[in-house]
Amino acid sequence: MAPSERAPGTTVPPVGRRDAAMRPAAAAVWEPEPRWVPPTPTPAERVAGIAGGLFGAASAPVVAGPVLGAMSALGPRPSRRALDAAELGDPGWFGPDSVAWRVHADPSMLVAGIAAFTLQALHPLAMAGVAEHSAFSEDFLGRTQRTGEFVQGVVFGSSARAERLCQVVRGVHRSVVGIGPDGRPYAADDPDLLEWVHLAEYLAIAAANRRFALHPMTVGELDRYIAEVAVVGEATGVVDPPRSWDELLAALEHHRPSLAVGEYAARGIAFLDDPPILPAVAKPAWRAVWAGAGACLPPVARRLLRLPPPRPGELAACRGLLRGFANLGGEPAELAAAKARLGLP
């Protein structure tokens, strides 16, 4: 059933033949996934977050410069955009009262980006487009930065900037066509693939926020957030993007039969598991962030990747690291530019 034909809030069974004589193990695959709501932090994780935040605040005057200087070796931090007089006073597609502004201002977005790529990689045709049309392992930082600029730019940018960013993405997608390793053709502007990339991106952001943000979204705010970011999906070509958490889960259920750990996905995830571009001193921090990203994946993804239950110590370390970084790195450049555009403190 096409995405535009789904009734809001419904769960779509996998497409194909359902055989009454199917073996129990196979029949279990056809059963809809239980409703999943991303968990919030445990008490131990909250304590670690408080400790990390206090450490970051106390040590910021001393260590912020060296830490941010070391990070510059991994790629330049985004600089604040110059103000355009024509954009002054424009709140953009969301504005400061939106859930999206609060969600995208939190350092949990770092974990979200890693989780989003991992989830998107589980669709073989989507990953084929990435592997065959972008130098992921050779230009990991550049690709990550460009994706971050888009995700943050459409939320904090002016209406005109958000529209331009979406037009650029649509233009890039038109040239991404090919034949996947299994012989199936793919096109990045195929509505089904566009829906998959959209839902994986915002599912990961929502899950990371629920687990690692200073003020995690409530269940009600999950619905509001997914409804807000639907405008981004529409602007990038998604047909009838989900507008509630249940609709997003229904879309995930629709794509579930297509998910697999193919060769491209295995190579991409192996790269993330131990990035060769990271210096040895940064590896322990990366292990915590990588564990946090894995904890943000929905059950079907964790099952396909054969991930063990996340270790409490790693998740506590991830939250502590993110909360500490919040006091070292300052607010996102796109948010600072948006505040300046609107005359906000």
Outline of this structure?
This protein is mainly α.
Structure commentary:
The protein has one domain (39-74, 92-342). Helices cover 60% and strands 2% of the residues. The protein has helices spanning 24-30, 43-71, 99-104, 108-120, 124-133, 140-156, 159-174, 191-212, 219-235, 245-255, 263-273, 283-295, 299-305, 312-329, 333-342, and strands spanning 177-179, 185-187. The protein has a two-stranded antiparallel sheet with strand order 1-2. Helix 6 packs across helix 7. The protein is globular and about 65 Å long. Residues 1-16 and 70-75 have low confidence and may be disordered.
Which helices and strands, and how do they pair?
Layout: H1 24-30, H2 43-71, H3 99-104, H4 108-120, H5 124-133, H6 140-156, H7 159-174, E1 177-179, E2 185-187, H8 191-212, H9 219-235, H10 245-255, H11 263-273, H12 283-295, H13 299-305, H14 312-329, H15 333-342
Helix pairs in contact: 2-14, 4-8, 4-12, 6-7, 6-15, 8-9, 8-10, 12-14
Total individual domains = 1
Task: Please tally the helical runs, counting DSSP H or I stretches of 4 or more residues.
Answer: 15
* N-end to C-end Cα span: 48 Å
Model regions low in confidence, pLDDT < 50 over at least 5 residues: 1-16, 70-75
**Amount of beta strand:** under 5%
The largest pleated sheet is described as: 2 strands, antiparallel
Helix content: 55-70%
Mean pLDDT: 87
Give, in spatial order, the strands making up the sheet with the most strands. 1-2
Rg: 20 Å
| Coarse structural class | mainly alpha
Strand tally, please?
2
Characterize the overall form.
Answer: globular
Could you spell the SSE succession in H and E letters? HHHHHHHEEHHHHHHHH
